[in-house]
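ARCHIVE CARD
SHELF: 3
SLOT: left
DATA:
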Amino acid sequence: MKRFTYALLSFALFAVLITGCKKEEDKSGSTDNNTNTEFLAPTTPMNRVAILEDFTGVRCGYCPDGHVRAKAILDANPGKFIILAVHAGSYATPATGWANFTTNFGSALVTQAKVSGFPAGTINRMLCSELNVTPQIANGYAMSRGSWATAANKVMAMSAPVNIGAKATFDAGTRLLTVKVDLYYTSDFTTANNLNVLLLQDHLFSKQSGGTPNSNSYEQNHVVREFLTGQWGEPITETKTTGSKVSKTFTYTVPNDYHGTAVEGGGAVIIDDLKVVAFVANGQTDVLNAVEVDVK
């Protein structure tokens, strides 16, 4: 009888310990129940982050004014506004004595946006008519720099149907960048969504028309270096209903430089100056939400 009582007490104690561990794990709220890994996206409804595609170029004399205006919006809205400096068009085309910050993606973005003059910008790839601003070309997405703040404020007041979280880590030995992106849908979605992941670099110095204080050594920031997911992103084929979670991981081998480091090159890659941006678009347009993270 004593042995039976002792065994029963031991089993009860073991059950209490197991139950206690389970409660402690649930309290943390930092894991995805499906994968038991960290889930990065918020799960409460939030407003959209505004994302500016700033079409710019090193030989564009008015473009530095666009950079100033974009920074003012960023400073006024930390965590709610993202800048993508897209060097494209005739003012960015490689030329002797000028840095080459172009990518394989800029020309298609300029065409889609319907740009007629530089600098130009799109806000969340939404039609200007939806944002109550004047387009550069009728029925276009691109607007002049004087409209960026108005359009961004309009977007930042809109609810987001999907939340995004991301983490970017770099292995110096292999130069492999790993980006984990998590999505949480706060609304049902039946149309095609594309996930876009971009690599940006700050603190690049080059000759710049109209650049101040030194036009021969002007600081370029938010420079788009690469689309890890291709021109228009990777389709999200998973279920997209309220409460749905989607997790993706991307890898990319970071080069030592883009277009070389000489005068006509795009400069060396400094890992501490890199950022990753992830955004979900409704197809190729209408950016539903975005996030920017440092590379660790």
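SLOT: right
DATA:
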Amino acid sequence: MIKSMTGFGKAECELTDKRVSVEIKTLNSKQFDMLARIPNVFRDKELDIRTFMNNKLERGKVELTISVDETAGYENFTINKSLAKKYYDQIMILSSDLGLRPDAQILSTLLKLPDVMKAEPKELKEEDWAIVNGAIGEAINKCNEFRQIEGNKLETDFEIRIGLILGCLNDLKPFEEERIQKIRTKFKKDLLESLTEQKIDENRLEQEIIYYLEKIDVTEEKTRLKSHCDYFLITLLEPVSNGKKLSFIGQEIGREINTIGSKANDYNMQKIVVQMKDELEKIKEQLMNIL
């Protein structure tokens, strides 16, 4: 079972005088990296929220947005009279300099200026926080469900691509046998051209051919490559998503494919190696998004 790091979850809850909405978006990241957009009333709980989300979401770039809709409006507010007077004095000076008469609606304008009128912050009640915390938990669960669905899609894609790599591995066999015959023919031809008057030592020739074939033999690499691919598929089925482990296995798969390519010395085998590399590259791109 694998899980994607891409997810989305949303939940809402109702308090006595407000409606609270919680949204969580996640993307891939090597570590847990959280950006929180939360109202001041919840700032004291930010550390608890981060710890809670880290435990539940484990890894990824996480964006949390908590928005509050005041259904009952602000009951208590204060007017910063000294600041309003400073604004007023500056407006009157500017009006005089420009030869303008102050507008009759200047009071309403003053009240809209920054920090003149402020709602008095309300203390967060523990029972309200319990409800909001429950909404955060619900959003996290929905986000994890989204991640699981995306992970299932990726798992199917991985199985297909590993299957294609294993299929390419089987396609190498006929070209390996053909390659051996080509090498034997080439060696004998080159010797006949260079030793026109001397008799060829067939035993020595066979020894040299065997020595060369051992150098370019890819049997061990093919065996290891199949083992790594099988291990990759087994790891996909583990109960816990382990993207890092799959990445390590992918590196080992790539190492064996590269070695086969370097030893191939055959055009048809090289084409198959390129196909395997292409499939592996697509796997690696998707592995970056696995939890």
